[in-house]
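Throughout our pipeline, every protein is held as a single compact record rather than as scattered files. Nothing more is needed to write down the fold, since each code stands for a local backbone conformation. For reference, a complete record is included directly beneath this paragraph.
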Amino acid sequence: MSHDTRTTEARSIDEGFFVDIHGIEHWLTIRGADRTNPVLLMLGGPGAAFSMFTPLYASWEQHFTVVQWDQPGAGATQGKNGDATTGPLTIERLVRDGVAVLELVCARLGKQRVAVIGFSGGSILSLTIASRRPDLLSACVGSGQIVDWARQDAASYRLVLEHSRAVGNAAAVAELEQIGAPPYPDTATDAVKSKHAGAFTAAETAALLDVLPALQAPAADARYIARGVPLGDPRTLSVAAYDKLRADIVTFDARRLGRRFLVPMFFFQGEHDMFTVTPEVRDYLDEVEAPRKLLAMVPDAGHGTFLMSGALLQLLLEHVRPLTVAAER
């Protein structure tokens, strides 16, 4: 039996729009080959707008309706509003905004639940939302998962210092020994360790270089771009947003959210992650009660798992999509 491509095309979706959320214009994109597919909301870290990485996740759109949200402090939302109107940044505020995004997406697409995947700082949001509003989620995925900043930060320092010594990186060893073990007093000192602990692996760098031309020259009719809205430098925005959220991030302990979750919980960790170190994630998952839970490794990845779109898609298709489909029945 032949496949009627006209039917699939009629069900496809490609939208980019500003929407009022708690008095601020937020930029959302919704893209997918078939709007009957499960919905997946991506949550980046502070100041990181994943909407600009849309070409990297094009293959996901065959299996999921992918939603990108430029959070306050990031991307087109920051460009549209600026610091004057964006307001204070706190984890509580971003969780509240994230819940509103989920409710809007469910209403717009006629869905009862959405899967979320949070990366690095975004994993704090996904985990917190899962604890508070399980009725909105079909699954919760974290990658580069923050579970206990203080413990992971200390373990990260030991690991990256040991690694730097082992590979003979004298410059890294000198910088790390100069700042000493955490806790650190400010964002600038955090950045010294993060530069080494969060460095891209060879595979992550190759993935970024492969998609870079598409990122730098999006199609003239690309709807994931907010036309006429100035976009700041991503690194500068990320540092600025992290600095505002730092007090919340460095005191985060997922155990305070409780150990029982009502949605399936998945952690996809880079096998070489020296930033949000995996042993702490494994220990936390052992304590968690959930309908289903799993820790899986992303081969050749470090903390930049978001760049490993092919490997992540395989994990999503194997472990997450079947549950999201079942949740809609």
Notes: The chain has a mean pLDDT of 94. The longest strand covers residues 13-21. The chain has one domain: 5-150+201-327. The chain has eleven helices and eight strands.
